[in-house]
Specification:
Strand 29 and strand 30 form a beta hairpin. The protein is rod-shaped. By secondary structure, it is an all-beta fold. Helices cover 0% and strands 30% of the residues. Strands 1-2 form a two-stranded antiparallel ribbon. It has a two-stranded antiparallel sheet with strand order 3-4. The protein has a two-stranded antiparallel sheet with strand order 5-6.
Length: 318
């Protein structure tokens, strides 16, 4: 008989113990045509359907060396570089089951507890790629998409964790750190939403709520920055703008709180502090509006009202 001819086993099988026979590779192993032994596939791949080669695991899958099938990575993990196993997502990332890689949550959200998805931050908090929702510092609030914080505009304030920026009420302005409001100092005012207090001009003072300035009442005055209107001291009256006190002129007087100076009547002159009028002493006179009492010239004497001098009658002298 002729010489026996050698044959090559098909892929997925190798020579058996019996001459001329081939046996299929067991599950999880493969063999290319002509291989003498079945081999395991490297990590990240499994035998093809005919066990004649290795095929890589799909996106988001893994397989250990010698595995017969690929598995999807569970939620919260991603395949390693060689797809031999899965590794957990870092704290700031998430992955659904079978994801090729962990992803970052969109602005305003963070990974949930098992890192299988994202949850939105609560009102007043923000997040931008980190593992936790954060609170904005005083003087700022989260942006519309909650990706960061935006500072208050002039005249606004916000406490830590606030969702909106607010204006201060009348008579108040934001504190230096914009975390609250502070009252204007006495003599100053502010309208709601102002960034700074302003000083009332002379002749005006702030209203009780500190929202505006009002004129001093009749007979009173104020200088810039006064918290209240005051009466002028005796002998003086408020100026036309009510922003200072002016002394009464010669022969005039003003009592406490007077709105105008008055002229002393004949026979009287102002007291030293010009708060009232006092009568001239005997033998002296003063015309209306005089600043001092005078002595009549020889041959004359004060009238009974002491406002003028009159000549002595015949036979009399002075």
């Amino acid at each position: 008989s002729g010489a026996q001819q050698c044959s090559t086993c098909d892929g997925g099988s190798v020579p058996g113990n019996t001459s001329g026979s081939c046996v299929k590779c067991t599950q999880g192993r493969y063999a290319s045509p002509g291989d003498i032994a079945c081999s395991i596939c490297p990590a990240g791949s499994i035998p093809a359907a005919q066990n004649n080669s290795c095929v890589a695991c799909g996106s988001g899958e893994y397989a250990g060396a010698g595995a017969s099938q690929c598995f999807a990575c569970p939620a919260g993990s991603e395949p390693t570089g060689n797809k031999s196993t899965c590794k957990a997502c870092t704290a700031a990332k998430y992955a659904t089951a079978g994801s090729a890689q962990c992803a970052t949550c969109s602005a305003g959200s963070v990974p949930n507890g098992d890192q299988s998805g994202c949850v939105s931050c609560l009102q007043g908090k923000y997040a931008s790629g980190g593992p936790d929702c954060l609170t904005c510092s005083p003087g700022s609030v989260p942006s519309a998409e909650q990706s960061g914080c935006v500072l208050c505009q002039p005249g606004q304030y916000a406490v830590a964790g606030a969702t909106v920026r607010s204006p201060c009420s009348n008579g108040c302005v934001p504190s230096a750190d914009l975390s609250g409001c502070t009252s204007c100092s006495p003599g100053r005012f502010a309208v709601s939403g102002w960034a700074q207090c302003s000083t009332c001009s002379g002749g005006t003072v702030p209203t009780p709520d500190g929202s505006r300035c009002i004129q001093c009442e009749h007979g009173k005055h104020s200088v810039p920055g006064d918290a209240a209107c005051s009466i002028c001291p005796v002998g003086s009256i408020p100026s036309s703008q009510n922003n200072s006190c002016i002394a009464c002129g010669p022969g005039a007087y003003a009592a406490t709180g007077a709105s105008q100076c008055s002229t002393c009547a004949g026979g009287t002159v102002p007291t030293s502090n010009r708060s009232a009028c006092q009568a001239c002493e005997a033998a002296r006179y003063a015309a209306p509006g005089s600043s001092q009492c005078l002595t009549c010239s020889a041959g004359s004497a004060p009238h009974s009202n002491r406002s003028v001098c009159i000549p002595c009658l015949a036979g009399r002298f002075a």
